[in-house]
Design a protein that fits this description.
It is a single chain. This protein is of the alpha/beta class. 47% of the residues lie in helices and 13% in strands. Strands 2-1-5-9-10 form a five-stranded parallel sheet, sandwiched between helices. It has a three-stranded antiparallel sheet with strand order 7-6-8, with no helix packed on it. β6 and β7 form a beta hairpin. The longest helix is centred in the first third of the chain and has 21 residues. The protein is globular, with a radius of gyration of 22 Å.
Length: 325
């Protein structure tokens, strides 16, 4: 009997993501969907040190800043609507206090730069090829910070522009960290503010650019999250009420495909054990002073100790503290 759907077969990657794999996530909000899952499961990850970024140029600029270990000074930030901000950063870094804004930006860059130098994997998600360019200095911004639209030019990046930028960037990344492998993906979230046709042109531009990079570099892979959503889960029941963000069911399905592609059996086993511990951590006891609850805490503490004996590199400090407090 027909399944009435297309199953996207993904070749299992030769290079797994394990609990020893340090992974940097950069790009759109879909990057955080995957990165946050890994973070919750206690994988060593660094997620969007500049905040969410949608276009390839902004991601490229941010990675260059990490490679250069850029230190932001007052001339690098701006003041508008009673807040200091950076055009390279998401608004979550904005602050009414100039010094706090700079401190938060520079602290994160220092942390992420050190992580990138020792990372095993860089996961980049492109959301759109449409960009906003500040008219004043012709810089492409990561975030407009609600400045008036007449201060920006808006245009579509070209395939070759993206390709040539990333030829240089990937060479710099390889010089910084020769073991680094790069996984590109295209966000399955449609940017309907670009219009239906504009969104398709944008996504096609991104796919073509990434494919050229994949053909050029041995350390570049592609994970087809966009294709899974468009061809496998092509039904509005997999979207939220706004009809363009994907819902939890879709995210879980793509996560399953990601797991099958990048996790070995040992990693999957560790995930299952950690998931049970995390679930128990949020268990609400009927009587916190009962012997039954004390036994429950002891049982989970033993599970953590057993895991750490087998895999001493796991970061279960928070869970260990919770069950032994």
């Amino acid at each position: 009997m027909s399944l009435f759907r297309i199953n996207i077969d993904i070749t299992k990657s030769n290079s797994n993501i394990t609990y020893k794999t340090k992974t940097v996530f950069m790009g759109s909000c879909f990057t955080e969907n995957i990165g946050d899952r890994l973070f919750e499961l206690k994988f060593p990850v660094e997620i969007n040190p500049f905040g969410i970024q949608y276009n390839p140029t902004s991601v490229k600029n941010s990675l260059n800043l990490l490679i250069d270990k850029k230190i932001f000074i007052q001339n690098d930030i701006h003041f508008y609507n009673e807040r200091w901000f950076s055009f390279y950063h998401h608004s979550k870094f904005s602050n009414s206090d100039k010094e706090k804004c700079l401190y938060n930006i520079n602290t994160k860059i220092k942390q992420a730069s050190e992580f990138l130098e020792n990372a095993d994997t860089l996961f980049i998600t492109f959301g759109t090829a449409w960009v906003y360019q500040l008219k004043e200095n012709r810089e492409i911004v990561s975030n407009c910070h609600k400045l008036p639209a007449n201060q920006f030019n808006r245009f579509l990046l070209d395939v070759d522009d993206i390709y040539n930028d990333y030829l240089i960037l990937i060479k710099r990344l390889s010089d910084l960290n020769p073991k680094l492998r790069i996984i590109f993906t295209i966000s399955p979230i449609r940017h309907l503010t670009d219009g239906a046709v504009g969104n398709q042109i944008s996504k096609s531009t991104l796919i073509l650019a990434v494919n050229k990079l994949k053909e050029h570099f041995n350390n570049v892979e592609y994970f087809p999250s966009y294709e899974i959503m468009m061809d496998d889960l092509r039904d509005y029941r997999f979207y939220t009420d706004d009809m363009f963000h994907i819902n939890e069911t879709a995210i879980n399905y793509i996560w399953q495909k990601f797991s099958e592609t990048y996790f070995d059996d040992d990693t999957k086993n560790i995930i299952n054990r950690i998931e049970k511990i995390i679930k128990n951590k949020y268990h609400k006891p009927f009587n916190p002073t009962s012997q039954q609850y004390k036994d429950f805490l002891k049982n989970n503490s033993d599970k953590i100790n057993n895991l750490l004996q087998q895999y001493p590199y796991l970061d279960l400090e928070d869970e260990n503290f919770f069950f032994n407090d």
